[in-house]
Amino acid sequence: MAQSRVRRRKSRWKRTVKIFVFIGLFSFLLAGAAVTYFAFQLANATTSSEVELERGEKSELRTEPVNPSKDNISILFLGLDDREGNLEGRTDAMLLATFNKELASIKLLNIPRDSLVDIPGRKNRDKINHAHAYGGLDTTIDTVENLFDIPVDYYVTLNFVAFVEIVDALGGVEVEVPFTFTEMDSNDTHGAITLEEGTQLLDGEEALAFSRMRKSDPRGDFGRGERQQEVIKAVIRKGASFSSISSYNEVLQSIEDHISTNLSFGNIVALHSYASELNNMDSIHIEGDDRRINGGYYFEPRQDSIDELSAIFRVHLGLVEPEERDYDSFDTNEDEETE
């Protein structure tokens, strides 16, 4: 399938404005909401780019385009396993967030990358992280829309290069490592990074390893999702202070080259009303079962869980009226277990 055609129109910014915008986008990818924090700080800044998907300005599941300043919206965040700088290849992380304007609330779902799903244009079900390699952004978005029966209004993508360099620009992030483990680096060199149990200050490569590791975690993708959220909180703490950013001149160009979104800066600024909810995001989980097919590992989401999440998202987006069950009080932080 044809890749998404992206049109960029860039205006000249002061360097300080640029770095905070892209740090915000990076933060939002990991945990689904931190970009609003930085947008709030830069509410009067001008737009940096305009991006358009092949489908146009709105989802086919919308009757008209949405506006974050007045409408409930959804955003899909993609972390790409890409080193060439063209933002292609398979997704290594996938986060779906919905924003309710009236409630000023955010719901966030970490979609396991090995989820066995239907991908438009493919005969057989496959891992959801293959959708981007098969058909780019539009196919990935179509896959998520079909899975949960909701429109995906916006997307943000970045790759490992931007991740590593932004964390390094912040001078590292402090996290609590739950147990000692060894993980590959961004070049997939096995055993390159060892993180010791306890409170640690991590550089970019170490933060990437902390966020990517799942095989050594007994909770798999769910444990990884929690670690990603811990990284984002650390990024927010460091990113809030301009004095924490060092050597940003050296990384600015790389950040611009390795991040893509169809959110205009005006859209980002419109999300400022959610700033107070950054530490109260409602993290929801998908239930499923581990499977082996032809020797490969897959995570098969349970249909009742998909239906539950679809209902939660649809109510939160205002697509349907809430039924007797109060989805906002649904216990979404309960630990999940896989077989």
From TrEMBL:
It holds the Pfam family LytR_cpsA_psr. Keywords: Membrane, Signal-anchor, Transmembrane, Transmembrane helix. Residues 90-239 form the Cell envelope-related transcriptional attenuator domain. The chain crosses the membrane at residues 20-40. Signal peptide: none annotated. One of its GO terms (biological process) is cell wall organization. Coiled coil: none annotated. The keyword Transmembrane applies. It comes from the Bacteria. Belongs to the LytR/CpsA/Psr (LCP) family. This is Cell envelope related transcriptional regulator. It comes from Alkalihalophilus pseudofirmus (strain ATCC BAA-2126 / JCM 17055 / OF4) (Bacillus pseudofirmus). The gene is lytR.
